[in-house]
Structure formats: C-alpha cells, structure tokens
Write a structure and sequence with these properties.
With about 375 residues, the chain is α+β, with helices and mostly antiparallel strands. It has 8 helices and 20 strands.
Length: about 375
C-alpha cells in the first residue's frame, strides 16, 4: 500500500457570527519549511490559525497533519487544543508574568511531559536557550525584559512543548523596526535548525519574503494565490495586497568579494548581482528580494557611464497594465529565474517593448534587499 504524502490538509467552511465573515478554504501545505498565510487585516488569517489550533471549531472541515486528523466533520472527530501537538506564538509574548523567563520554559517542559502520548522532537533545552540567546535573562521576569527578549522566550517556550507544528500569528507585529531586525535572525534559525513545519501569518510581505518557502494569499476568507514563494511572487498578476511592494525573491550564493569597494557578487540561477558586503562567508546561501519598481529596462547594455552596476540580459515573457494606468508590469526571464519590472506605460511605448523581446534588466546595488 502506498504511503500517504506528508502534508498539512486544511479544508474549512466556517462562518463567524454576528459579523457574517466566513472562511472557505481547501488547501494542502507542505509538512516542512515555512508556509506563510499572507493578506490584509480582516482577510481571515488569524481565524484560520485558530481553527487549526482548535481554539475555534470550524462549522464544517477537515484538518490533518500527515496521518493525524485533528478535525473531521464527516467522521465526527474534534481533537481539543491541548491534545494537538502545536506550539502557538502570538503577536504579544503571552508569558506568565509571575514566573521568571526560565520558569516559563520549565512550565513548557512539564506540560510536554504531562501529555506524553504526543510524539516528541526531543528539542534540547541547553541547545535551544543558546540558539535563542536567552541564557543571560532566564532569572528575569517578563516585566524586566524588552519586547524582543519576551518574544524570544515565548518562541523557546513554544518549541519546548515539543510541537509537531508551529503556528506563528504576526509574531513581529507588536515590535518596532529595531526589535523586528533583532528577532528575524532567530526565526531563521528556528526554520533552519528544527525540522518542524511552521505556519506563519503576516500582513508584512518583507517578513514573508525573508522567511517563507510556500505562500498562501487570503482575501475575504478565500485563497487567491498559493504555491512556492518564488512562483507566486513572480506571477505577472501578483496579489493585489502587495501594492507597491510587488517584487521577486532569488536564492543566491556569495561567489566573490571585492575588498577594495566593500562589495560582494551573489550568483543566482540566471546571472550575478553586486551588492554591499554585509560580512557573510564565501559560498553562503543568501535570499535576495528585488522590487519591481527598482528594475529599469533598456534595449542595450547600460553604458559604463551609468551608476548602475547590475545589468542582466533578459527576455520579456509577459506585459500587462499595472494597477495604476500610468504603469505597466513586465515579466522577464533571466536564465532560469523570473524578475519583474514596473515601468511607465509611456516608457514601454517609447521602447516598443513586446513579448519575446531581448532586453537588459538594470538593478541598482543599493536597492537589493537581503
């Protein structure tokens, strides 16, 4: 008998009274990496997470993690939240205020032991507090910690519950810009060091682009786009919720360092880009984000008199009007990769841009987001 494909199955119909909002979702997510649920406020992201966690019971639905069914309306199954092997991280770090950071972590360990019937990931306590950089604050109470420190403790506590699935509901939304920059590397470490699937809810595309492998876009309780992150972001008709932030993600490798000019060359499947040297090691894997508004097009390679260092040979695979009539969105094939460019409709006409044209995509080094 063929073994079922490991995945997270979510099939839900759920109406919320009295506001009349409803979820109508039928998707399968990979049971590895980070799956981002993206959309504007009120699109149903948190409601979906609450149904997965069992905090809300969907009117009709089927929720399954690999072989484990948590809800099946057809079979009359509903597993209560405390029996679901889930770690839940909220917008606000919901720590017990009367316990120190260390005691909050011990609570999670005791809870995991109490419900010993759940499968375990055997996450090591000492390795985790080292990974999260929280050893110096274990004896402090939540009120003594910064917002970023509280959130790191909350993440560690969720992991020490030995979950089979992590749910993250806008974990950076309550933090300022500097605290977000502090926390993002820790989220990347959790993603890379622990093979626990993560469902990450956010309305911030910069977080999604940096962390996610798979992307689901919600609008008014319905799925409008889903698939691999790079595929969804590279579509010629991207999600409306992206607005001015339409752009693509590239996976690159640090190939060369220019010590004289403090630059690095990042090779991707289609070419290479020069950008600022942030101290990463040679051959490091780096995720890049390039916004469509930061890509210009020329019919010839940029002359040496321009300040733009990156000029990539490309072929136009699609052109469509943008949300504003003044602009056009151009999809480009660069090797095996896709790049989007947002140009004025006037520029597209003056250059006589057509499907299949060979052009040069020009990207300023200072505009590349890492």
């Amino acid at each position: 008998m063929q073994q079922a494909k490991p995945e997270i199955k979510l099939k839900l119909k759920h109406a919320q009274k009295p506001n009349g909002f409803s979820l109508d979702i039928d998707i399968s997510l990979p049971s590895h990496g980070v799956s981002a649920i993206f959309g504007a406020s009120g699109s149903g992201k948190t409601s979906l997470l609450r149904c997965i966690a069992g905090l809300e019971k969907a009117d009709h639905g089927h929720i399954q993690l690999n072989e484990t069914i948590w809800q099946s309306s057809q079979s009359g199954i509903f597993v209560p939240p405390y029996k679901r092997a889930i770690g839940y991280i909220f917008q606000e770090a919901s720590l017990f205020t009367h316990l120190t950071a260390g005691d909050n972590l011990q609570y999670a360990i005791k809870r995991a032991a109490k419900f010993g019937g759940q499968p375990k990931n055997n996450i090591d306590y000492k390795a985790l507090i080292s990974l999260m950089g929280i050893e110096p604050i274990l004896n402090q109470y939540p009120a003594q910690l910064s917002g970023g420190e509280r959130q790191r403790v909350a993440m560690a506590r969720a992991l020490l519950s030995q979950p089979q699935l992590l749910l993250m509901d806008e974990p950076l939304a309550a933090l300022d810009y500097e605290r977000k920059r502090e926390i993002l590397p820790y989220l990347e470490r959790i993603r890379d060091d622990y093979k626990i699937p993560i469902i990450y809810v956010s309305h911030a595309i910069d977080e999604v682009a940096r962390l996610a492998d798979h992307l689901v876009v919600l609008d008014q309780g319905r799925v409008t786009h889903q698939g691999k992150l790079a595929d969804v972001l590279g579509q010629i008709e991207p999600p409306l919720a992206l607005g001015e932030d339409v752009g693509i993600v590239l996976h690159a490798r640090l190939r060369m360092r220019d010590l004289d000019w403090h630059l690095v060359e990042l090779a991707f499947d289609g070419g290479a880009l020069w950008t600022a040297d942030d101290g990463d090691r040679l051959n490091a894997k780096i995720r890049l984000r390039i916004l469509a508004r930061d890509v210009s097009l020329t019919k010839q390679a940029s002359a040496k008199t321009t300040s733009i260092l990156n000029s990539l040979p490309a072929k136009i695979t699609a052109i469509v009007p943008d949300q504003h009539k003044a602009f056009a969105l151009v999809q480009l094939k660069v090797g095996n990769s896709v790049i989007l460019a947002r140009v004025t409709a006037k520029s597209a006409a003056l250059l006589d841009l057509k499907l299949g044209d060979n052009v040069w995509a020009n990207v300023k080094s200072v505009s590349i987001i890492r």
